[in-house]
Amino acid sequence: EQNITKDACNWLIRQQQKNGSWLATPWSDNAANDRRTALLTARVSLELARTNDNSNLETTKSLKQAMEYLTTVVDQIDEPYLLACYAQTAMKLGDNVIATKTIDRLTKLAHKKADTSYWTLETNTPFYGWGLAGQIETTALVLETLAQPTSLDTQNTAHKNQLIDQGLLFLLQNKDRYGVWYSGQATVNVLNTLLTIISKQELGFSTSNIGEIYVNGVLVKSLELPPANEPANPISFELTPFLTSTNPQIEVRNVRGNAQIVNNYYLPWLIPTVIPTVIPISVTIADLISTAIFTTTSKATSTGIATPTLIPTVTTTQPQEFSNRELRLLVNFDKTQAKVGEEITCQVQAERIGHRGYGMMLAEIGLPPGAELDRSSLEKAAIDSGWAINHYDVLPDKLILYLWPRAGGVNFSFKFSERFAMTALTVRSVLYDYYNPEAKVTIAPVKFTVLQK
User: Fold this and answer.
1) Which domain holds residue 116?
2) Number of domains composing the chain
3) Looking at residue 267, what is its pLDDT?
4) How many angstroms separate the CA atoms of 348 and 331, rounded?
5) Is the dihedral of CA 31, 34, 36, 37 positive or negative?
6) What's residue 323's pLDDT?
7) How many C-beta atoms lie closer than 10 Å to residue 295's C-beta?
8) Residue 298 in contact with residue 306, Cβ under 8 Å?
9) Would you tell me the crossing angle of helices 2-15 and 57-73 to the nearest 10 degrees?
10) Fewer beta carbons below 10 Å: N end or C end of the chain?
11) Can you say whether the dihedral through the CA atoms of 172, 174, 178, 180 is positive or negative?
12) Which residues contact 202 (CB under 8 A, 6 or more apart)?
């Protein structure tokens, strides 16, 4: 393992430019970007500093050149990700003057949201993070920096500790439905931050809490929530008998402190319409009847109502298309009524809109039961796309495609046939950003009718 780390560090050093930077070149072209280069240089410098024990002269020399480069750009860029890496590297090198000065800048760049604090980013991270995933990745890195003691800590220590508490609350309130933080790198940063803070604090034992469920303002159930530091099974509660009105308002209240609540909603695809991206839980059931399966993450506080973020859906006309400010997806089957064994062609267009994100996208194309894919058509689509289709997986109910975006999007088609007669819906089709799953578009299921020959 030590040899692997040493070889990796030596390889990084060989990639360093004469001015001390590591050049960030996007996949789409060869034009370097100064801001991305600065972020990449700061991140590489931090990793080299973490592995350097001052005995490797080449690494020490490389870090010195990198810090000289970063010193020329940090004053021009208010980018928390860059500043956090720069401050931590300075600490590792024993430069507490630079570290303290940079930490003071970071405290001034914090954004307040209710009782939380977070740090945003203007430039995508070196791991392609952007949007909410990028905010989490950046906030975790900043908190890890703030939690590091320096010998020149100022009278702002109390304010810094307050920001750490508020930032931790932001991270804990923004776990996704899988209990992690949207992307691999964001999750790694959060876990590193939690370990750093835990190692410097004495932890008490969590106590149980009480959750209250209200329907139309009436308390219908109190549930004892298990301590957060113990494993627990899901808590089930039948709410149907209390939904007597056509427009029920459901509230989940937490008596003490905070708790994360993961919610699964199913509502049928009945009315072809487009709904807003964010809908409060107090919206009427009638307003939501045209949506679909929603998986949301909500936060219940002692004073607030759980407010889930719901996934937008689309019309069910052919061809099916949906787009938002970040992504666009079109799925078109040449026929939805066929005979067993008859060839069906699916045309797909997937596109990233604008320049907010970059990197890989995942498309899930819903298929009817019994679909037999023509893998030769998939291989041809991958080759014809110039390998914009990087990889694909065939599942019983869907085709998953890993896409590298191109200008104008990725356009391709594939073929399949049905093995047996049936009338059924496909699963929904989805396109989302691999590095920011919050950026997502969803297309409604399609009804197929397949007859015997």
Assistant:
1) 2-198
2) 3
3) 67
4) 5
5) positive
6) 56
7) 16
8) yes
9) 50
10) N
11) negative
12) none
Q: Answer whether residue 307 shows pLDDT above 50.
A: no
pLDDT digits (tens, 9 = 90+) for 222-258: 888 777 667 778 788 888 888 888 778 888 887 666 6
The arithmetic mean of pLDDT across residues 29-56, rounded, is 83
- The alpha carbon dihedral of 213, 217, 218, 219 has a sign of positive
CATH assignment at residue 127:
1.50.10.20
pLDDT score of 260 more than 70: no
d(CA 113, CA 177): 21
Structure token pair of residue 322: 């949906």
**Which contacts qualify for 280-289: CB closer than 8 Å, 24 or more apart?**
280/305, 280/307, 281/249, 281/250, 281/251, 281/252, 281/305, 281/306, 281/307, 281/308, 282/249, 282/250, 282/251, 284/246, 284/247, 284/248, 285/246, 285/247, 285/248, 286/246, 286/247
348 and 442 assigned to the same domain? yes
The sign of the dihedral angle between the CA atoms of 93, 96, 101, 106 is: positive
pTM: 0.67
Helix (H) and strand (E) counts in the chain: 10, 20
Residues in the chain, total: 453
Asked if residue 311 belongs to a domain, the reply is no
- Is there a single domain that holds both residue 176 and residue 233? no
- Annotate 331-393 with DSSP letters as a single string: EEES-SEEETT--EEEEEEEEE-SSS--S-EEEEEE--TTEEE-HHHHHHHHHHTTT-EEEEE
pLDDT at 28: 52
Residue 238 and residue 111 share a domain: no
Predicted confidence at residue 429, as pLDDT, reads 94
Q: Give strand pairing partners of 363.
A: 401, 431
